[in-house]
Design brief:
The protein is α/β, with parallel strands linked by helices. The radius of gyration is 21 Å and the shape is globular.
Length: 458
């Protein structure tokens, strides 16, 4: 079972969530995935200096923070309202350290819990051409041409007529992605509920969120890489694996047809818990507000410790039948021993089923990738994550390694299953993915299923 922690985190519990003793120094940086990618895995346990996330007690509003002014905090924004009480991002005003302030706030009777605003980073390194020449091995199957037994078997699903459907939506919580990339434009969402007119037509609090929202920069420009492709390569790579268009050259995704929405929260410096919560809630609100068939979010990122606020946002999504598919991480460690978030969250106590699917990476020989984290009870399944070719800005392609690359294969599988099983609840989609896993020796005792993704097994 994936682990969760008690509601009120003490200083000791916060440090223990990062695998540290209360007197230990902050954790060191995790190992990078590959030298070819500039962005490395976030050092575990890093957080935004001078900020804390605070959940007030039941029935208390943001105005109640005035009563906490003696504890030296000032509200910056309301992230959500939970049980009638505000979840806030606050600034420390008295010069105390983040961990000292968390301890002080947790001692207040007005506070349900307080925690650091953890910093996250993505988990990757840096008749379609790349499929037919065998480069796109992660899409192959035992009997496809070209063939690879350790691929996702997506190509075999395609031969059965299972190629996805535009009525199925996937949220990409990540960097932004180049939605006008030739391989992505056909599957990129264009919001019919809020046209670009300078007004918040659907009343969700985001003006002209035509392609999604950029929570890192608080604007509607979800792609910031320009024609030089200077940013958002990771998100664009993830999108290509989920839904790269078929038969147009370049790459092809697990789904030939799907609709992808951007919930950007990773920027130049990574992202933080507060923005990740807003991104998760954005998709939950889109589904509830407009009835969009959002079946899963792809979460190829990690870092920091346990967050009660993040956990509850994932539960809100789970209760709306949205799966949370997450990268296991790239430090090569055991997640059963040292929890890795967000992949270690388990929503059973809050939603009645576990909406989180944690994904390890395998290579084209079926071996567990050297960098991949694992866990017999905390990591669910393996998927292709080494030498994965996909789209990158600007209108280009590149091969990356990482559990970041394995995760969108599974998110794509969720969308593919939903396209052939309309109305299937999230728990059923999860079960179908895990129950069809193919036993793989490298994953025996290393994942819950002991197996790898098998898209054709639904």
């Amino acid at each position: 079972m994936k682990r969760t922690l008690p509601l009120l985190l003490t200083l000791t519990a916060l440090l223990a969530a990062c695998g540290q003793s209360p007197n230990a120094a902050l954790p060191t940086a995790a190992a990078p995935e590959a030298a070819s990618e500039a962005a490395l895995v976030s050092p575990a346990g890093q957080f935004e200096e001078g900020e804390v996330i605070v959940q007030l007690g039941a029935g208390l509003s943001a105005q109640s923070l005035t009563a906490l002014s003696t504890l030296g905090v000032q509200s910056l924004e309301t992230l959500a309202v939970v049980g009638g009480a505000s979840l806030l991002r606050v600034q420390i005003t008295d010069g105390q350290s983040v961990l000292a302030k968390v301890q002080a706030l947790n001692a207040s009777p007005l506070v349900r819990f307080a925690e650091p605003n953890w910093i996250y980073q993505h988990q990757a390194t840096a008749s379609d051409n790349y499929f037919t020449d065998g480069t796109l091995w992660g899409m192959a199957g035992d009997a496809s041409t070209p063939a690879n037994a350790f691929g996702s078997q997506a190509a075999e699903a395609w031969t059965k007529g299972s190629v996805g459907n535009d009525s199925v939506y996937i949220g990409i919580i990540d960097e932004g992605y180049q939605f006008d990339h030739p391989d992505l434009t056909g599957n990129a969402w264009l919001n019919p509920f809020d046209p670009a007119d300078g007004r918040d037509n659907d009343g969700n609090g985001y003006i002209d969120d035509t392609r999604g929202w950029d929570f890192a920069n608080s604007d509607n420009t979800v792609y910031d890489g320009g024609t030089r492709g200077s940013l958002d390569s990771h998100g664009t790579h993830v999108a290509g694996t989920i839904g790269g268009t078929a038969n147009n050259g370049g790459v092809v995704g697990v789904n030939h047809n799907v609709t992808m929405i951007s919930g950007k929260f990773l920027g130049r410096r990574g992202g933080n818990t507060a923005d990740a919560i807003k991104a998760v809630d954005y998709f939950t609100d889109l589904k509830k507000r407009h009835g969009l068939n959002i079946v899963a979010t792809n979460n190829s990122w990690g870092g920091g410790g346990y967050s009660q606020a993040m956990y509850e946002a994932i539960v809100r999504g789970a209760n709306a039948n949205i799966l949370f598919i997450a990268a296991a991480g790239n430090s090569g460690t055991n997640n059963d021993t040292t929890a890795s978030y967000p992949s270690n969250y388990d929503t059973r106590s809050g939603a009645g089923f576990d909406a989180v699917i944690a994904v390890a990476a395998i290579d084209k020989t079926g071996a567990l990738a050297s960098f991949s984290q694992y866990g017999k009870t905390s990591v669910d399944i393996g998927a292709p994550g080494v030498a994965i070719m996909s789209s990158v800005p600007y209108n280009k392609y590149s091969s990356y390694n990482g559990t970041s690359m394995a995760t969108p294969h599974v998110a794509g599988a969720a969308a593919l299953y939903a396209s052939t099983h309309p109305g299937a609840p999230a728990a059923s989609i999860r079960d179908a993915i895990l129950n069809s896993a193919v036993a793989t020796s490298s994953l025996t005792g290393k994942t819950v299923t002991g197996g790898r993704l098998n898209v054709s097994g639904f």
